[in-house]
Amino acid sequence: MANLRDIRRRIKSVKNTAQITRAMQLVAAAKMKKAQDQALAGREYSSHLTQVLIDIRKNFSEESHPLLEKREGKRELVLVISTDKGLCGPLNTNLARKLRAVASPDADYVTVGRKLRVLLEKLGSNIVADFVVKDPVPFAQTRPIAKFLTEQFLSGKYDKVSIAFTNFVNTLRQEPEVVTLLPIREQANAEVFGAETITADRGHDFTFEPNAAEVLAAILPLYVNYEVFQAHVESRASEHSARMVAMKSATDNAKKFIKELTLEYNKLRQGAITAELLEITTAMKAME
Amino acid sequence: MPLQLDIVTPEKKAFSAPVDHVYLPGADGELGVLPMHAGLVTALKPGELRYLHNGQTTTLAIGSGFAEITQEKVVVLTDMALGEDEIDEKSTEEAIERAQEKLKSVDHSMDAEEVAYLQSVISKSTAALRFKRRSH
User: pTM value?
Assistant: First the structure.
């Protein structure tokens, strides 16, 4: 049976752990607020952009721009956005599971974030490139990623480019998603990118200025850039939210544990005192 | 019938309210939009956007982007939308200088996108600066 000193030591160590997880929770909460704001602010822009694209899309065929071209081949490149650090609940595991279920088994990968890169390396997948993106996500750092993916697609090396990321729903819920980036499928992706405001076909007829081809040539790369950017900010918001929640439950668990241990400790202490008193009274009785 | 104007940048929704008319810096020159305008999608170049809201004309400096115009709505998607008091002359000048400096160092034939990006920074900063100076 545990003696008093052991329990005291355990209480102390659990207290220390709780202090650390509490500090991490506070840090994550501060970052979470910022990341969530960024994700929500970006949604407005990306959903409007998607809406414009959907509106004008029926004026164009798939051959009118190389980024729209659907190809027969099956070679796939996947951009995987995971976290650099752990302690964020089941976030990365969920994304990995989703990735396994959806992406083709011989796909090549581009990674952002250490966690899934390490996992993919272990599984022996082919990683073509690895990017580092700071926190909070600067647009200037996601642009080269979008550029790289576009180049890979246009060069004909890959027939499909997807993004695997974690979509931020709310603080308690984050959904792993795999969406097709190229060739551009704006209809399908509209559902993922916070799109209650998007309607499939509003039946407007548009004229274009300066002309249709130029508008399309400008809007498509922009769309790719922003989709990549939005996937990053959604992932970051999810990461910090998940970490905040994980750390909060860790702190709560530690507190509960401390309570139990303290109770145990007090019981033992009382037991010891009672035993001592008993000994003294017995000794007194014996001396009478 | 008023015209709903939404100006959206990647950072925030810069403006959203009904207006009486709006003037946009289109790729082919300035473009006035009144309610019941025909459907139009136009590229925008960096410049000034003016709108009449509650009898008051407001001007914003905007970057390049797009406008989608339907009969009752104008959506402006741009990478910058700043009112006069939001433009800091000094930092804008510095931004232009930095971009020009960098433009010299990149290889124009190799990195077309980088060049295009830097040029867009310069032109949008210049538009902001011109607008700021004129309104003094």
Answer: 0.83
